[in-house]
Amino acid sequence: QVQLVESGGGLVQAGDSLRLSCAASGRTFSSYDIGWFRQAPGEEREFVAAINWNGGATDYADSVKGRFAISRDNSGNTVYLQMNSLKPEDTAVYYCAADYNPFNWKPLTRLQKEYDYWGQGTQVTVSS
Fold first, then answer.
1. 3-state percent helix, strand, coil for the chain, nearest multiple of 5
2. pLDDT tens, residue by residue, 84-115
């Protein structure tokens, strides 16, 4: 089991940068792929980015590709989402989630139903 806590959200202007952190508890953090998702007001939660257990594979939604970068530090049990060139449409609550994948037996996924554990979310607001 793993518990996730997001941090780093805030209010920024368009064009600014933010780095979100997802801190995980538990000794088996490296057995999990980690995804970032977001939910804007009145919208469904959507995939943003994901990273596999050792950082060797990443995936990004088209809307953030080239602007966002996901990385992880397994020694520190933390995954990061560096967000650059932020736009007002990036405004949302951002969630990190963990998908148990101990032997890399399945590929990185965007499917929310595959993620077993979720954080409480952190608000990102981008003003124009």
1. 10, 50, 45
2. 999 999 999 999 999 999 888 899 999 999 99
Other C-beta atoms closer than 10 Å to the C-beta of 92 total 22
SS3 sequence of 62-79: CCCCCCEEEEEEHHHCEE
Distance CA(128)–CA(116), nearest Å, equals 35
Q: Structure tokens of 52?
A: 């596999």
What phi and psi values does residue 81 have, to the nearest 5 degrees?
Answer: -130, 105
Identity (one letter) of the amino acid at 118? Answer: W
CB 117 within 8 A of CB 98: yes
Q: Tokens representing 27?
A: 């000794």
